[in-house]
């Protein structure tokens, strides 16, 4: 099987030339679940944006990010023209961000927002499209999809919004879904539900998942492999089990000890 995503020596610099990410290399195949974990400011989000070709204006990427998605031309994202990247986004790679309010249009009922990618992907129109929207909302386990479809983003809860954002992202049938702290703004119970849902949905579709988070307990709940980042570089990588059971880098040991302390304080809930 060939790599779906091959990141080789990725670097990101700010407009003023500050090195924010450097020398990052990893690869993913169809259906893989990789967790990028590290403290705030370690470069996780910029890595995600660089992979999707969405770095803010002025920032520059170096190295190589190759996305090789079935039925799409193999694309070198670094330096690619916007037109090329547009073909890749959606079917190739889709991102779910931490704050769904930022991703959803405040002035459009959420049903119409899910309908956009569904229509583009499937060509459905009219009543058939409407049924597909309701199915997509039911699939992310939203009770009463009819009501949710007609609601504006501010009329539903944070957990419901994140489910809508996931439904919208999956409606594109992406080969790679990047989820950047998708549950950090949610309370713990809702967070656990949304994580389980995300795991089930990508599993059922064979979608590769790049899951980003600062909380090792959360990330290991979804990812099979981990890449630990610190100060814009990878300090350790391996299977989730190896990294959490036998961390070799002092920073990873700190992360593991922190997650254990939290787990003990919660009476082993995370085990
Ligand atoms: N638009 C920007 N201009 C300049 N520097 C930036 C910009 N965005 C991020 N940075 C810097 O790049 C570094 C990496 O940021 P990034 O957002 O990737 O970290 P992160 O690991 O995702 O953190 P968090 O968990 O807080 O989102 C940080 O030092 C940050 O201050």
Automatic annotation (TrEMBL):
Bilayer topology annotation:
Peripheral membrane protein
Keywords, ordered alphabetically: ATP-binding, Cell membrane, Membrane, Nucleotide-binding, Transport
> GO terms for CC?
plasma membrane
Pfam families in the record, alphabetically? ABC_tran
Location comes to: Cell membrane
Q: Which family does it belong to?
A: Belongs to the ABC transporter superfamily.
Domain ABC transporter, by residue range, is 5-256
Tell me the organism's taxonomic lineage: Bacteria, Bacillati, Actinomycetota, Actinomycetes, Streptosporangiales
Task: Please name the source species.
Answer: Planomonospora parontospora
Q: Name one GO molecular function term.
A: ATP binding
Q: What is this protein called?
A: ABC transporter domain-containing protein
**Mind telling me which PANTHER family this protein's record contains?**
DIPEPTIDE TRANSPORT ATP-BINDING PROTEIN DPPD, OLIGOPEPTIDE TRANSPORT ATP-BINDING PROTEIN APPD
């Amino acid at each position: 099987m060939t790599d779906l995503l091959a990141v080789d020596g990725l670097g990101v610099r700010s407009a003023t030339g500050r090195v924010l990410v450097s020398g990052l290399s990893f690869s993913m195949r169809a259906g893989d679940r990789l967790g990028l974990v590290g403290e705030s400011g370690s470069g996780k989000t910029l890595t995600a944006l660089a992979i999707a070709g969405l770095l803010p204006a002025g920032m520059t990427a170096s190295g190589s990010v190759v996305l090789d998605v079935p039925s799409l031309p193999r694309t070198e994202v670094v330096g690619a023209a916007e037109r090329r990247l547009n073909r890749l986004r959606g079917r190739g790679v889709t991102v779910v961000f931490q704050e769904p309010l930022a991703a959803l249009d405040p002035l459009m009922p959420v049903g119409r927002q899910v309908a956009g990618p569904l229509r583009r992907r499937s060509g459905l129109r009219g009543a058939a499209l409407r049924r597909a929207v309701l199915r997509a909302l039911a699939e992310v386990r939203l009770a009463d999809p009819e009501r949710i479809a007609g609601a504006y983003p501010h009329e539903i809860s944070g957990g419901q919004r994140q489910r809508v954002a996931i439904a919208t992202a999956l409606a594109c049938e992406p080969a790679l879904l990047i989820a950047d702290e998708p549950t950090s703004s949610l309370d713990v119970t809702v967070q656990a539900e949304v994580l389980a849902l995300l795991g089930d949905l990508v599993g059922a579709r064979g979608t590769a998942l790049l899951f980003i988070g600062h909380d090792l307990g959360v990330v290991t709940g979804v990812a099979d492999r981990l890449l630990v980042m610190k100060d814009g570089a990878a300090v350790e990588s391996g299977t989730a089990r190896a990294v959490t059971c036998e961390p070799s880098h002092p920073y990873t040991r700190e992360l593991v000890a922190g997650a254990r302390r939290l787990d003990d304080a919660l009476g082993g809930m995370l085990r």
